Amino acid sequence: MIILNSEKEDYHVHSLNFSDGMNTIDELxxxxxxxxxxxxxxxxxxxxxxxxxGWSKKNPREVLKRWKNIYNEVEVxxxxxADLLNEQGDICAHIQGFQGDFxxxxxxxxxYRGDKKKxxxxxxxxxxKHHAILSVIGHLYVNCQGVDIAAVxxxxxxxxxxxxxxxxxxxxxxxxxxxxxxxxLEQADQIYVNSDAHTLxxxxxxxxxxxxxxxxxxxEWTGQGLKV
Length: 228
What we know:
Largest sheet: 6 strands, mixed
Order of helices and strands: EEHEHEEEHEHEHHEHEE
Shape: globular
CATH topology: TIM Barrel
Helix content: 25-40%
Strand content: 15-25%
CATH architecture: Alpha-Beta Barrel
CATH superfamily: Metal-dependent hydrolases
Distance between the termini: 17 Å
Number of strands: 11
Number of domains: 1
């Protein structure tokens, strides 16, 4: 398994400007420089999530073309946390019609509109149909009842799509399936360690805990994978 980012990079952060983060893009970028980060992907929730949850539009997405980092040397990407929509593999990968520089595919029960008994098919078809734009599969080990985790990981590996170690769910344990998490760490070819930060405190601390977790379990790895 290859870890694609260091503690100085985070590819899953939410802003106040476009979804449910507590801080603005400028606040996130300024703070990321203060804590020594090198790269930041602000990947806000997709339009499907914004509509389903009734979150109001705060800024026009097109204004990002005019935005510049005037604070520091942190490289900033504007991504989208895309939503899995149904068992046909349809996804929503845009905000206000704009796709991102980095696309996370995630399942959120309150956004998905398909048959929840067919989530395996949903993931597999989405990967097959949209792999060209997918940067990572987000928090696969969360809300994953009935999902064939191994099959989804195998498909992601085939299409060279990394899996995510999402530190928010790792720390909070909310809706987390530890067996599925272990499978991800055993079988994924590549992973990103991301904070899924909605606050500055999470941006600063969550990734550190994720990397510490990986260090702690290294002693439990065998030639066949992680002991469960």
